Amino acid sequence: MYNNITRRRFMGDSLLAAKTACLGSAFLPEFLNAQEQSRPLYKSRYHIIDAHTHCGAPHDDSVPAQLDIMSQTGVNKFVVLLFDTLGWKYAGGWSKDKMSGWPKLLKRFPEELIVFGTMDFNRATWPTFFQDIVQKLEWQAELGVQGIKLWKNLGMHVRDGNGKLLKIDDPRFDPYWAKCGELGLPVLIHSADPRRYWTAEEIKDRMYRYRQSWMPSWEELIRQRDAILKRHPGTTFIGAHFGSMSSDLPMVAKTLDAYPNFYVDVASRLRFMAAPSPETVREFFTKYQDRVLFGTDTFVPYIDSILNSSERMAQWKDRKSRNYAWYLEYFETDHKNLAEPRPGSELVLSGAKLPPEVLEKFYHINAEKLIPGIKKGRRVEE
After folding, report:
1. Which residue of 111, 121, 131, 148 is 20 to 30 Å from 310, comparing CA positions?
2. Which is it for strands 113-118 and 77-81: parallel, antiparallel or unpaired?
3. Quick one: CA dihedral 245, 247, 251, 256, positive or negative?
């Protein structure tokens, strides 16, 4: 079985990756990054849906900008995940006023754009909060959202009217999760973060919140998430970022085995693929080829100062198109020395070269199966 055999291999791969990083980090990534900037972009021949992007507001010029970089690398559609960022300084694209703008963009780009709604936490302290979110869910479905995104502030920041931290598996949310299933809306849920953020040696200044005494442990947040998977088998859940278990593929496998209604995406966690060998990654994706979705966590520009600046837009497009190319080349080839195209990064990967039939499911078939209203994309052999 994958869980029994691969855990030993996964740990061995991690040690090997650590040794390799120590030997090469002094000069190799910098050289490869410079080399990366000079070579043509890798472009895929597959039909691809990026199931994990964000945009802070429904701007008329945002979608064309995103489509431009996608076309350079062969990506066809993208999902904008709206989220309520209460407690964090992000623009999640969600508010009652902004919601009216997304249906207009959906009508303008029906073949390329997919939008997931979210839960409004601004009234979490109100007595009617748990009833209100169900009503707002139905309202968003009427507007045309094709799924729901829940962010990590549920379980880590949002508090109820009594000042208590709201747990992901609070029974008062049960009608909401059930309604998502009833409406056929998949829930893409970001619970916790990488486990190492909770350990002192990995904490950076910007991660101070993980050290707070009131912050639940990583294990507790994963337990809360798993509890709703078990309680709501009729609702589809997609765990963002490998379900926050990216450093432990055997644990991802165990969770997928336990909950048939659970899936994961790979967004923004390619950096964790330096630890397992390409063979281990290929084995995981092959076994769970029906349960993993492609995503990048790209943030689409929406501010006029960027969209109206040719210089800043050119920089954004170059950076994001190279990031797409890096993802695709990693999954499709066995090329060595694939340097992350990010200034200062020391991450270098060897390609996993997934089989064509696995890539088809990973890139678009799984998303088409889970997200309502998506047209089936062409297969390569067609």
Report:
1. 111
2. parallel
3. positive
| Residues whose CB is less than 8 angstroms from the CB of residue 320 and which lie 6 or more positions away in sequence, other chains included | 69, 298
User: What does the block give as tokens for 368?
Assistant: 């088409």
> Could you tell me the CA-to-CA distances from 331 to 72, 322, 370, 379 in Å, in that order?
17, 14, 22, 17
**Helix/strand/coil for 265:** strand
Tokens coding 340? 């992350």
Q: In the sheet that 298-300 helps form, which strands lie side by side, from edge to edge?
A: 292-293, 262-265, 237-239, 187-189, 148-150, 113-118, 77-81, 49-55, 298-300
Strands 148-150, 49-55: parallel, antiparallel or unpaired by DSSP?
A: unpaired
State how far Cα 229 lies from the chain centre.
Answer: 18
Short-list 170, 80, 178, CA closest to 134: 178
* pLDDT, tens digit (0-9, with 9 covering 90-100), for 181-240: 999 999 999 999 999 888 766 556 556 678 788 899 999 999 999 999 999 999 999 999
Exposed e or buried b for every residue in 155-180, given b needs 16+ CB within 10 A?
bbbbebeeeeebbbbbeebeebbebb
The CA angle 295-290-267, to the nearest 5 degrees, is 15
* N residues, the chain: 382
Q: Give the chain's domains with CATH numbers.
A: 2-370 (3.20.20.140)
What would the two tokens of residue 234 be?
A: 């009729």
Return the residue matching tokens 């088998």: 233
pTM of the model: 0.90
Task: Please give the pLDDT value at position 17.
Answer: 45
Instruction: Classify each residue of 213-252 as buried b or exposed e, where b means 16 or more C-beta atoms within 10 Å of its C-beta.
Output: eebbebeebbebbbebbeebeebbbbbbbbbbbbbbbbbb
Distance CA 165, CA 154 (A): 8
Q: Are 364 and 74 in contact (CB under 8 A)?
A: no
